[in-house]
Structures are given as structure tokens and as C-alpha cells.
Design a protein that fits this description.
This protein has helices spanning 4-19, 23-116, 122-136. It is mainly alpha-helical and 149 residues long.
């Protein structure tokens, strides 16, 4: 039985003991908090990796959009180049036809000149031959042209 101080001390210790959590519950709380901290630490790198992956995905989508646009531009350029090639071939054929027509006219003019030589004065004949000579300078050799001297 004891004194008042001892009784109050005993009551206080009893109240503290009754106010405390039982050991298994306290242990479970501590374990839960520790597991939560470990889970947060383990999750942090994955969240960082997720952010990096999302950023990489956005960059990849942008690059895919740019590649698609570039492919469309390249397709348009190829189509325009094909059209230009066809126009060039057509112009080449027309130019070759014009050269051939000019060569034929030149041959006709030379034949006419030979026919008329006997009937025209000598100076006029020399002048016409000189004009033909000058014009041949501007024809390719394969088309009846001569060297420029």
C-alpha cells in the first residue's frame, strides 16, 4: 500500500501502459511506414523513367510528323521533276525537229544556189556563198556544220 506519491506514480504508469498501443499493432504501424518509404523510393526512378519516356514519345511523334511532311514534299518534288523531264524531252524533240528542218532548208538553198549560179552576177554569187558559210558555223558538225575559223 504505500504513500500518496507511490500511488500516484503507479496510477501514472498504469495510464501510460494502458494508453500505449499493444506491441503487434505498434510493430505493424512501424513496418507499414517503413514499407511505404521503401515503395516511395523504389517508385521514384520509375516515375523519372516515365517522364523521360513521355518526353521521348512526344519527340518521336514530332519527328514522325516532320518525316511525313518531308515525304509528302519529296513526293511532290518527284512528281514535278517527272513533269519537267517530260517537258524537257518534248522540247528536245521539237528542237531536233527544228534543226532537221533547218538542215533540209539549207540543202534546198544550196541546191537552188547551184541551179541559179549560172544566171546571177559573180559578186552576188560570192555573197550568197559567204552567207551560207557563216550560217554553217553555227550548226553542229553532225548536222553539216563547219569549224569556226
Amino acid at each position: 500500500q504505500g504513500g500518496v506519491v507511490q500511488q500516484n506514480k503507479a496510477k501514472n504508469e498504469l495510464a501510460q501502459h494502458l494508453g500505449e498501443d499493444p506491441l503487434p499493432l505498434r510493430k505493424a504501424k512501424i513496418t507499414l511506414e517503413a514499407a511505404l518509404k521503401r515503395a516511395e523510393k523504389a517508385r521514384a526512378p520509375f516515375e523519372a523513367a516515365l517522364r523521360q519516356a513521355e518526353a521521348a514519345r512526344a519527340v518521336a511523334e514530332q519527328a514522325a510528323a516532320e518525316a511525313s511532311h518531308a515525304r509528302k514534299l519529296a513526293s511532290d518534288a518527284a512528281r514535278q521533276a517527272e513533269q519537267a523531264r517530260q517537258r524537257s524531252e518534248h522540247a528536245k524533240a521539237e528542237a531536233e525537229a527544228a534543226v532537221e528542218a533547218a538542215r533540209q532548208r539549207l540543202e534546198e538553198a544550196e541546191a537552188y544556189l547551184e541551179e541559179v549560179k549560172a544566171r546571177i552576177p559573180h559578186g552576188t554569187q560570192w555573197w550568197m556563198e559567204r552567207e551560207l558559210h557563216e550560217r554553217r558555223k553555227f550548226l553542229p558538225k553532225s548536222r553539216g556544220g563547219i569549224d569556226k575559223k
